[in-house]
TrEMBL record:
One of its GO terms (molecular function) is ATP hydrolysis activity. SUPFAM superfamilies: P-loop containing nucleoside triphosphate hydrolases. This is ATP-binding protein. Residues 88-207 form the ORC1/DEAH AAA+ ATPase domain. The keyword ATP-binding applies. It comes from the Bacteria. Pfam families: AAA_22. Keywords: ATP-binding, Nucleotide-binding. It comes from Flavobacterium shii. The lineage of its organism: Bacteria, Pseudomonadati, Bacteroidota, Flavobacteriia, Flavobacteriales.
C-alpha cells in the first residue's frame, strides 16, 4: 500500500464527498465505512487504517492502482447528453444498448462529477424494500427502522429538496414487475422535480412492448412515462476502439484492427485484448 496510492484515494475521496454533499452523507452511501474513517483519510491520520479498509474505500469510490484511460466514445457522448437533459429539465428517458457498450462506465463517470445524481445497478433478487434500501444508500440517507412507505416518503422528500436531482436505473430489465412498478410511483411523485433514466439491453424494450400487447398491469403507464420511445445507442465503432487503443499505449494499425475484429463490439473484450497485446499473452 504505497503513499502514492493513498494520495490517489484521498484525492478521489475529496471529489466523492463534494458530490455527496458532506462526509456523513458520503459515509452513509458506502458499505462498512464511517464518517470518522473518512475524516482520518482526509486529515492524513493513517496509522489506524488497515490495508483492507483502504482497498474497501478505494473500490467503492472507483479508485484503482491499475492504469486505464477512458475515452469519449460515440455512445458516451450520447449517454452524457441524455443524462444532462434529464437532470436539467427533470425529463424521463429509456436507453438501450448492447452488453459491453460502456453504459455502466458512462453512468459512473457522470455521477462522480455531477451533484445530486444517483446510480442504481439493478439486480434480479431485489424486492421493493431492497430497491428502496439501495436508493437511500446511494443518496447517503440513514433509513434504519423505516417501513417501505416511510422509505419512499423519505426518498421523495429528500429529492424534492434538492436542485435538479437525477436517478439512473442501470440494468433496469433485471427488476421484477413488482419493483419496476416503483418507477411509476417515483415518476408520479417526482414529476417536474427529478429526472429519471432507465437503461438496459434491448430486452427491456422487448419486455415493455410484449407487456403492452398482453395488457399487463403497469406496462402502458411505463411506456407513456418514457415518452413511448427507447433511445438506442450506436454501439462500439472502429473509431472508438482506435481511440481507446491509442489512449492505452497501442498505436500500430494491425494490432488495432485485430483488437476491433476480435472484440465483437464489447468494450470489456477490448480491454482484455489490449492487456494481452501489451503483455504478449
Amino acid at each position: 500500500m504505497t503513499t502514492e496510492f493513498k494520495n490517489q484515494v484521498k484525492e478521489k475521496l475529496a471529489g466523492y464527498i463534494a458530490q455527496k454533499g458532506s462526509q456523513n452523507k458520503a459515509a452513509n452511501s458506502l458499505n462498512g465505512v464511517s464518517a470518522a474513517l473518512l475524516s482520518q483519510i482526509m486529515n492524513d491520520n493513517h496509522q489506524n487504517i488497515s490495508e483492507v479498509m483502504w482497498r474497501n474505500v478505494a473500490s467503492q469510490i472507483g479508485c484503482s492502482s491499475k492504469k486505464w484511460f477512458c475515452v469519449e466514445t460515440t455512445d458516451f457522448k450520447i449517454i452524457s447528453k441524455v443524462l444532462e437533459d434529464a437532470q436539467q429539465h427533470a425529463h424521463v428517458f429509456a436507453l438501450t444498448g448492447d452488453a459491453g457498450s460502456g453504459k455502466s462506465m458512462s453512468f459512473e463517470i457522470y455521477t462522480k462529477i455531477n451533484k445530486n445524481s444517483y446510480l442504481l445497478s439493478c439486480a434480479e433478487y431485489w424486492n421493493r424494500k431492497e430497491f428502496l434500501t439501495q436508493l437511500l444508500t446511494v443518496m447517503g440517507v440513514d433509513y434504519s427502522g423505516f417501513s417501505v412507505a416511510e422509505m419512499m416518503n423519505e426518498i421523495v422528500k429528500k429529492l424534492k429538496s434538492q436542485e435538479s436531482p437525477l436517478i439512473i436505473l442501470d440494468e433496469a430489465d433485471k427488476l421484477p414487475d413488482t419493483v419496476l412498478y416503483f418507477f411509476i410511483t417515483l415518476f408520479n411523485r417526482l414529476e417536474e422535480h427529478c429526472g429519471i433514466v432507465l437503461c438496459a439491453t434491448d430486452h427491456l424494450s422487448k419486455r415493455i412492448n410484449k407487456g403492452i400487447k398482453l395488457n399487463r398491469k403497469g406496462y402502458k403507464e411505463i411506456n407513456s412515462r418514457i415518452g413511448r420511445r427507447f433511445i438506442e445507442l450506436k454501439g462500439v465503432s472502429f473509431t472508438d476502439v482506435t481511440q481507446i487503443c491509442m489512449a492505452n499505449g497501442i498505436d500500430d494499425v494491425k494490432s488495432i484492427k485485430d483488437i476491433f475484429t476480435d472484440s465483437e463490439g464489447d468494450l470489456r473484450r477490448v480491454k482484455r485484448k489490449i492487456h494481452a497485446v501489451k503483455n504478449k499473452i
